[in-house]
Write a structure and sequence with these properties.
The chain has 2 domains: 115 residues, Rossmann fold; 93 residues, Regulator of K+ conductance, C-terminal domain (Alpha-Beta Plaits), CATH 3.30.70. It contains 8 helices and 11 strands. Strand 5, helix 5 and strand 6 form a beta-alpha-beta unit. The longest helix has 14 residues. The chain is elongated and about 65 Å long.
Length: 218
């Protein structure tokens, strides 16, 4: 089976992190930036590292960019370069484009011109830190929309010894238990009779208001 190929455009902190992670997982990665020093540094980690101006249509095409399974536009504070690069990638026929946005307006613009997924690294990290501060039980927090999130949380003390059916998660909090992690093993869609134990980790999805209430439990 052919290994997936990824391109990461913009090798700042976010871009280099994505490129490095993909490369370490064994995927072919091409890193692109107009800063020669960044290109040189990442060249030791990825499959290919190229210095190029991706707002130049011909330069972008010369990279064979449409042959990649996905392209990540991780350009930093240059919103114009980010938008133009995303537009050119779409016109070039790239199958899947993930673009980093600085704010909501930037994100909406990226979506309108064809980004398949828009990410907000600073916002996402801020949300995680905030929820970690609210409750020490929260291990991971991912906002899927303004109304819906998925959270990885240590089972609240108030639920230890209770069966899932008696925990009131769905009726009282509007939440669904997707999976349960216990002693390193993950149970997908636990049965209603499953009794929560000390040390269990819950993967819960649902309304943000319900998640906030769950965070308040001791």
């Amino acid at each position: 089976m052919k290994r997936k190929q990824f391109a990461v455009i913009g090798i700042g902190r976010f871009g280099s992190s994505v490129a490095t992670c993909l490369a370490r997982q064994g995927y072919e990665v091409m890193a692109v930036d107009d800063d020669g020093e960044r290109v040189q540094k990442i060249s030791e980690v990825v499959t290919h590292a190229v210095r190029a101006d991706t707002t130049d249509e011909e330069a972008l095409k010369s990279l064979g960019i449409r042959n990649f399974d996905a392209v990540v536009v991780a350009i930093g504070h240059d919103v114009q370069a980010s938008v133009l690069t995303t537009l050119l990638l779409k016109e070039a026929g790239v199958g899947h484009i993930v673009a980093k946005a600085q704010n909501a307006l930037h994100g909406k613009l990226l979506e309108k011109i064809g980004a398949d997924r828009v990410v907000y690294p600073e916002w996402d990290m801020g949300m995680r830190i905030a929820h970690n501060l609210i409750s020490a039980n929260v291990l991971e927090y991912i906002e899927l929309s303004p109304e819906l999130s998925i959270v990885e949380v240590a089972v609240p003390q108030a639920m230890v010894g209770k069966a899932l059916a008696d925990s009131n998660l769905r009726e009282g909090y509007g939440l669904n238990l997707v999976a349960l992690k216990r002693e390193g093993m993950i149970q997908v869609s636990p049965k209603p009779a499953e009794v929560f134990r000390q040390g269990d980790i819950l993967f819960v999805i649902g309304d943000n208001k319900g998640i906030y209430r769950l965070e308040q439990l001791d």
